[in-house]
């Protein structure tokens, strides 16, 4: 399970998802509860092991003492594979909890990895964000994405990538920092039930053969300039870089891009 935070039940604002926001600690509880609902669903479907990767921001948001003890947790950063750290071809499914829509889409807390720093990402010329890249990397391992939870725009984005993925909208976007919320108990019940159903009826995942092309348009020309020091990375214009390779190599390389960007810039977070 890859657990993000912006798409968690009840959360709509930076104060909910970023330390030291006034509601961040409550947000951590709600995030852990959403993950626990999915864990219960997984075990109801017959899972024998669940690995949870904390994939949001500092990647130390989930509360280990409140997490279902049947699961194992990867916490902290940096991680070479970022949001899919720990995933291997030995797993039967990927579950995405608390995800959000890509940059430029009017979804709750929408952005792509680094907020203002990344304007757009393309995978083989298709606009994408965290959802599309995770789906492609999981498919490259031969592991299907079974479920995604988040706001309705995130769910729609996943369906545009793969209509076989089950989705649970836990809120409906009214604007970037406003949503109509699904009641917490109802949301948790839906996550648990849908996770169990999705894992009982998995569809196989087929990754496109051959190399893929990843293109990123940054806010800063300085970032693009520094990234061209990495072999294989080329600039399309002052702020856009592109690179070709195996999907898993690209996913790991993109996480290196993020670390370079963090070192080069001093812009505040996406909110």
Automatic annotation (TrEMBL):
Signal peptide coordinates: none
Where are the active-site residues found?
111
Residues annotated as binding Zn(2+) 2: 4, 56, 100, 130
Does the keyword Transmembrane belong to this entry? no
What terms describe the molecular function in GO for this protein?
metal ion binding
* Superkingdom of source: Bacteria
User: One short Pfam family name for this protein?
Assistant: Peptidase_M55
Q: Does the keyword Nucleus apply?
A: no
Q: Which InterPro entries match?
A: DppA_N (IPR027476), Peptidase_M55 (IPR007035), Peptidase_M55_sf (IPR036177)
Q: Where does Zn(2+) 1 bind?
A: 4, 6
Q: Which UniProt keywords apply?
A: Metal-binding, Zinc
The protein's name is D-amino peptidase
């Amino acid at each position: 399970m890859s657990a993000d935070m912006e798409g968690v039940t009840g959360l709509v604002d930076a104060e909910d998802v970023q330390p030291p926001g006034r509601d961040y600690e409550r947000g951590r509880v709600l995030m852990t509860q959403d993950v626990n609902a999915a864990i219960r669903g997984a075990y109801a479907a017959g899972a024998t092991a669940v690995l949870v990767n904390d994939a949001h921001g500092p990647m130390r948001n989930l509360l280990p003492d409140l997490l279902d003890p049947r699961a194992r947790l990867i916490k902290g950063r940096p991680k070479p594979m970022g949001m899919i750290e720990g995933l291997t071809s030995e797993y039967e499914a990927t579950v995405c909890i608390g995800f959000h829509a890509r940059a430029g889409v009017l979804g709750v807390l929408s952005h792509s990895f680094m907020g203002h720093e990344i304007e757009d990402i393309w995978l083989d010329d298709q606009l994408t964000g965290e959802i599309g890249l995770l789906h492609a990397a999981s498919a490259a391992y031969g592991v299907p994405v079974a479920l995604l939870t988040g706001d309705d725009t995130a769910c729609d984005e996943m369906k545009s990538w793969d209509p076989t993925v089950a989705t649970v909208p836990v809120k409906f976007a009214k604007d970037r920092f406003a949503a109509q919320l699904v009641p917490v108990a109802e949301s948790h019940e839906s996550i648990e039930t849908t996770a169990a159903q999705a894992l009982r009826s998995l569809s196989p995942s087929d990754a496109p053969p051959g190399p893929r092309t990843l293109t990123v348009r940054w806010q800063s020309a300085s970032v693009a300039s520094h990234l061209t020091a990495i072999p294989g990375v080329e600039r399309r214009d002052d702020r856009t870089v592109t690179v070709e390779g195996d999907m898993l190599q690209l996913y790991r390389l993109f996480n290196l891009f993020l670390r370079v960007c963090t070192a080069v810039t001093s812009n505040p977070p996406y909110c």
